[in-house]
Specification:
- The protein has about 200 residues and is mostly beta strands.
- It has one domain: Cadherins (Immunoglobulin-like, Sandwich), CATH 2.60.40.60.
- Helix content is about 5%, strand content about 45%.
- It has one helix at about 115-120, and strands at about 15-25, 25-40, 50, 55-60, 65-70, 75, 85-90, 95-100, 105-110, 120-130, 135-145, 155-160, 160-170, 170-175, 180, 190.
- The strands form 4 sheets. A 5-stranded mixed beta sheet has the order 14-13-2-1-16, with no helix packed on it. The protein has a 5-stranded mixed beta sheet with strand order 5-4-11-10-7, with no helix packed on it.
- The chain is globular.
Length: about 200
């Protein structure tokens, strides 16, 4: 990180989403999503009556393969037959929730307009759970939009669609981000997002 993120700028859900781009004059640009959980020093485990088993869930979507989630969505505790699930956020309007005994599946409920897919590279929204007499629970959903077909010509490519990490004590921890296709010495990396100014990339030789 370049400088610490002011506490008041950290989202309420404590999830920071960035986009990393790899570009080169001789190749098509590559994109990937970075999802970071901010762990604050004053975090104290609350008395949880209802909670998801992870603070965020990731997946990918294109019109050929459809929606794919990287992990299943489940409640860690507090579930019963009265638990109601929902989605919140502008980008959730094309999705719906199908709930099982203790797991949740997100499905595409209506066709996503081509113009929306063309102008976005990810969807970020919330999944919520509510049970009468219990605290509500929520988690963040990050869906990366992947290309239906490989672009023509030389193309850069990351080894993953989504990278996961944490921010703790003003240090960002993310596993290695690797370009596995089209790398040359003139490749440049850049970060984008509301809080991207607080981060930088470092190339490892």
């Amino acid at each position: 990180m370049v400088t610490p993120i002011p506490t008041e700028l950290i989202p309420d859900n404590r999830i920071v989403v960035l986009e990393i781009r790899a570009s080169s004059p001789q190749a098509n640009t590559a994109f990937a999503t970075i999802v970071l959980e901010a762990i604050l020093e004053d975090d104290t485990p609350p008395t949880i009556q209802l909670a998801f088993d992870a603070p965020f869930y990731t997946g990918s979507y294109n019109t050929i393969d459809g929606l794919r989630l990287d992990t299943s969505i489940a409640l860690a505790g507090g579930h019963d037959a009265n638990t109601q699930f929902g989605l919140q956020g502008e980008n959730s309007q094309w999705f719906s929730v199908s709930a099982g005994s203790n797991t949740v599946t997100i499905v595409v409920s209506s066709a996503i307009p081509e113009a929306v897919l063309a102008s976005n590279r990810k969807f970020v929204f919330l999944i919520t759970a509510q049970r009468p007499g219990a605290l509500s629970a929520q988690a963040t959903i990050v869906i990366s939009l992947t290309a239906d077909e490989s672009p023509q010509g030389p193309t850069l490519g990351f080894d993953r669609v989504t990278y996961l990490g944490t921010i703790q004590n003003d240090v960002a921890q993310v596993g290695p981000i690797t370009i596995i296709q089209g790398f040359t010495d003139d490749v440049t990396l850049a970060l984008y997002g509301d809080l991207a100014v607080y981060f930088t990339t470092r190339r490892l030789l």
